[in-house]
Amino acid sequence: MVYRTLVKPALFRMDPERAHHLTIDALARLGRVPCARDLARRRYRHRDARLSTRFAGLWLENPIGMAAGFDKNGLAVSMLTSLGLGHVEIGSISASASLGNPTPRLFRLPDDEAVLVSYGVPNDGAQAVRDRLRGSERRVPIGVNLVKTNDGTPPTRESVTGDFLDSFTALAPLADFVTLNLSCPNTTAETDYFDDIDRVGELLTALGDHDPAVPIVLKIKPTTDRGRLSDLVAVARETAQVKGIAINLPSASPGDYSLVGRYGSVATRLGAVSGPPVRSLIDAVLRHLAEILGPRSGIDLVAAGGVTSGDDAYRKLRLGASVVQLYTALIYRGPQVTSQILAGIASHLEADGFEQVGDAVGADVWSG
Known about the structure:
The structure is a single chain. It is globular and about 50 Å long. The chain has a single domain, classed as Alpha-Beta Barrel (TIM Barrel), CATH 3.20.20.70. The protein contains 14 helices and 13 strands. By secondary structure, the chain is of the alpha/beta class. The strands form three sheets. An eight-stranded parallel barrel has the order 3-4-7-8-9-10-12-13, surrounded by five helices. It has a three-stranded antiparallel beta sheet with strand order 5-6-11. Helix content is 39%, strand content 16%.
């Protein structure tokens, strides 16, 4: 009630990016107060042993996590890990600091509970984030999402690999898992670099030479091309430390979707649309990946996009996702949406006769 009647109306009267920065700042300040963290945990934690699961070899209290993009610089880790989530992923973070794209670069699509993002990965750089993570308290596993620095220069093998190696070396020791963002939809020079799948293998080989002990997740461009997905899976299987595959948002404009609202000139702006409009695409890609991987592959799937309810999250679990991530739903529905989604998943587990959430993973793909 507080979020819906007071906080959200106030934030939605502001420019979206300013509202975002104020939210992160407030969470960072609250995270430095132990009693505030404890109060948040008591308020938002949904305790149900049936929801505990494993992802990338890690034990999670539940399968719902915070997607990268919300806390780009690791400022609010202490509070975010107290909000009842099973894990939190920060970033994307690059080796060097980046200003990102010119403003405005964040737009609400309220009639569709969606957001258009065209940030261009602004962040403080790996060294600054490393220092913050060292001083943060965490109550759930933390993932660090890494991306090539958006400096506008044409990418080369040396520049891309070197950039990832620098950020990986700085942040991997402080992360429970590392996500390699291979398909950022909001940068100009690097968006298509990893369309050449051999380059994915080259990057993984370079990281492997540094003997990474942390699980690696590949965040890939969404596609329903089964041949391409099969090739990506084959590359992932060649590296023992690759424990997960995540599906990124596509580069598109709101006008590419069948939306309820009319958004004027924003409808033709290029970026990444998040929220319900991308739900069906992500679900289709998820099913293809699950079919290609098969059960007990050792590579877990991460799904985000259009998750606003327990029904949405449970569908992604049954399509093969081991964990489901949120971002846009938190903007429109507030932090209580996590416990509501978890309660919905638990209700579905009971109705379907599953003892653990892991039993539901892939049920619509691998059963029979």
